[in-house]
Amino acid sequence: QTVLVTGANGFVAGQIINLLLKKGYKVRGTVRSDRSINAAKESHKGYASQLSFAIVPDMTVIEAYKDAFQGVTAVFHTASPFVLAPKDNESELLKPAVAGVVSALEAAAQYGPNVKAFILMASFASILDLSKGYRPTYTYSEKDWNPISYEEAKVADGPTAYCASKAFAEKAGWEWMQTHKPNFTFSSICPPWVFGPNISPITNLNKLNESTHAIYTLIRGDKIPDADFCGFADVRDVAAAHVSLLEKESAQGERYIVGNHFDYQTAVDELVKEMPELEGRIPKGEPGAGLKEGVYYRIDGSKVVEALGLEYTPLGVTMRDTFKQLMEAEGKT
Ligand code: NDP
Description:
With 333 residues, the protein is an alpha/beta fold. It has helices at 11-22, 34-43, 89-111, 150-154, 158-180, 210-220, 235-247, 264-274, 303-308, 315-332, and strands at residues 2-6, 26-31, 51-55, 72-77, 117-121, 139-140, 185-190, 193-195, 231-234, 255-257, 260-261, 298-299.
């Protein structure tokens, strides 16, 4: 079985590919440039015979995938612009995110006669209603949709526009399926913040992906940041959810939240328990305050546990493994 993973050089894709390779799958990664191939190969040393790449310079062009689908039996579409401070919402986020999903689906239908499953790396961003704020007492689940309109998203702040891009892209995927009824299933994985280790050691702390950057800001901060996404998933759990879903056909065709409660205070509380040496380098805040009832919305991440038997990594372990790698990088830079 060969799984096509788009955006193969990304943070989340790195762990997904690692798990697929370990489990014996062949992987074809798509990237935008030669340079990304070299970096991705380096991350998966030892699996050269299972791993191949295709350069797709523009993922919004169906024909760009022409040579990528040979032998492919499943698609994990993870590539999507993840920028929280765009100069132009529409051209940098909304359009490429939507066209990226639709083109990958079209390409799978046209060039991938053996494709049986298409799994979209969506986001909790397509579930959350940002306009309702922390919405205490509300619990989000897979039945919720981010209700923002395209017109609102065009002029919204960066994080809101990013969330909208994920919602429009996922919606476009479900709509495409309704219209085209291809020979493969479509499923979406919707995690909030994804934290945890990068597949390779971090070499440049100034070029972190958005979620690792967000958590790393704790180190220099003088106070606990306000909650943004009140949820997180360990990147290894996100990878496990993708692969388990691929292996369980009866669970496909659905949306799955992968995630549990997160706020920066609780993250700090857990991190200091795991790595007491960080005390003094990160703000202490008010230990325990993050878990007070009635402050933040909650996230129901139980569907994926029931359907796929996913076992969530506790926040403390995710924080420890994230910060261990960040501290190693500090030592080197
Ligand atoms: P990264 O920034 O590490 O990876 C993003 C990947 O998408 C890279 O391979 C990047 O390629 C590719 N990409 C971005 N824009 C384009 C574009 N216009 N055309 C083609 N490829 C593009 O981010 P993550 O690994 O964190 O994110 C991966 C996916 O997971 C995204 O879909 C993101 O929305 C989603 N997600 C991430 C969460 C998180 O907290 N990290 C939470 C929930 C969802 P290049 O290197 O060439 O730019």
